[in-house]
Predict the structure of Glutamine synthetase.
Amino acid sequence: MNTELVNVADIFGENVFNETVMQERLPKKIYKNLKKTIEEGKELDLETADVIAHEMKEWAIEKGATHYTHWFQPLTGVTAEKHDSFISAPLPSGKVLMSFSGKELIKGEPDASSFPSGGLRATFEARGYTAWDCTSPAFVRKDAAGATLCIPTAFCSYKGEALDQKTPLLRSMEAVGAQSLRLLRLFGNTTSKKVTPSVGPEQEYFLVDAEKFKQRKDLIYTGRTLFGAMPPKGQELDDHYFGTIRQRIASFMKDVNEELWKVGVSSKTQHNEVAPAQHELAPIYAEANIAVDHNQLIMQTLKRVASQHGMKCLLHEKPFAGVNGSGKHNNWSLTTDDGINMLEPGKTPHENTQFLLVLTCILKAVNKHADLLRESAADPGNDHRLGANEAPPAIISVFLGEQLEDVLEQLISTGEATHSLKGGTLETGVKTLPDLAKDATDRNRTSPFAFTGNKFEFRMVGSRDSVAAPNVVLNTIVAEAFADVCNILEKADDFDKAVHDLIKEYAIENQRIVFNGDGYSEAWVEEAARRGLPNIRSMVEAIPAMTTEKAVNLFERFNVFTKAELESRAEIQYESYAKAINIEARTMIDMTSKQIIPAIMGYTKTLADTVISVKTAGADASVQSELLAEVSALLVETRNALNVLIQVTEEAAAKEEGAVQANYYYTDVVPAMESLRAPVDKLEMIVDKDVWPMPSYGDLIFEV
Ligand code: ADP
Ligand code: MG
């Protein structure tokens, strides 16, 4: 156990090629050029890149690095990398030099044929290229492979089509940044130069013991349990026992934090979650692209460190049925380069007006594109969470809190809001809008999209998913709403009146998306249907939102996605759903036929032998007989359900790839899996524990 005490300030960012390092190492002119690129998006010339590459390499070698990698996020949801060593061809003397050129820094060419492209990149032009995202700093990662210089990059096809999560994210950041600046200028801001979306994703995860994990094929192959009954007495373990668990977890968290701090991830809060073996880690928010990179680093670090501690980290959205699942709360706001948060309600009426316009624009954006937001959180694991009375419902709505809701109601009913709830009646002059105090009280935990004081929290995202897609959608839909108001306001004769009218209009038109009540209740499902809000229950039903005319218009207008890119992404989504369910179904088939049925057959034999012996001895064997009958009946049900699952899984594989196949997995294979699980879970409850061929939920959740 690592009990060494560390000084966070000393180790924080020690393996990052950050501001300080660049300022120290780069010639002034080069540093200035790079800053220009980072801040203003100017293209980097090769000469500058050469100098940076050289310094970066020297720095990385001092940190022990032997290799570099363009670290990118293909559409598989995880990161990918191809390692190259710094070594150049041997010299006549037999020695080697360590080299790294500007070209190698800026651009890489991984053989990308194995990454999903949804038909965008025919295999004969398998090569894509990666381009350095210099707004996310390079870092040296140390693990079993030694030390590697990781260069955060975007990944495109040769024609420039995005093949990754990063490219559209950067495009969407530019879009929302530009439109935000337009809006700020209208309100008299002349000083801010740049607006960037800030993102703070809270990561939930489970920890289980590695030895027990290894005994469960479902966890190994799918990341979740496909069978398992809840232990009736699970929660009654004594405190002493939990005390020891906490030591093990605490030691793990200490290592996770240290590893993250070294690579510049500001891991900040950690706490235990609702479920027994569940935890959460949140970093301090950062610029959206950095936050996305850091979240990937967090997920990788959690996994690696867990293994070092004899545990396994489960990032799946629903590792255990009947136990709370895991999500990722995506906190989002818009920040200027001079530190203004556009989602801060503000203290003066002037600021309030701007805030209320921003707020109502966001309401409009979310109302118009609820289907896209829902889709951005769709992954196979999240189908088990959303709408399942634990995480947000599958219906998108916005929670504003009492005070803001009241302000909106006043606007809607009278066209004027003259007071705010906590502040009493306020005179705010021309704007006829109240002063707003930051309403920090977020009492509503059931809302998928909640205003929490000075940011929105999108709570639908799955724990295993990249936060790139949700932020691409958020950035772009807000860019659209801002662009639309700016188009009107830039031409308005009476600016104040025009703003006021727009706020009122948007508040009225988008009322239906605001909901402050209990999102888990059945009443809300009915109410939402009356309001005409989409209730998209599954991933396959969510995917079509990506390619509607509305979506294509939106994304093409802001150069975030072309129609072809959207279609390819939808295709990849269908494929990844089909693949995920196929693996789950086949794992279930394997576990049932090779582990569960043999174990139950053995058990029924023991029971039958007992019945005979007891009868022979002349005693009443009715209890044993009943149990035998019950187990045998469930065994028959299991076998029949297994046969059905085998059949539909084969049929699924033969379907046309894409939407047709994915839908078949959803409508036929998933129910067949549920029908198989039911009798097996019943069997687990009644057979002897030592007969059961794998660790139980109790073993996994309560004995970490
Ligand atoms: P809670 O669990 O109460 O929601 P946490 O502290 O666990 O709070 O997480 C809040 C997350 O929101 C953190 O990542 C934090 O850095 C982030 N955050 C705070 N302010 C902002 C902001 N203005 N924009 C984006 N994210 C923010
Ligand atoms: Mg939160």
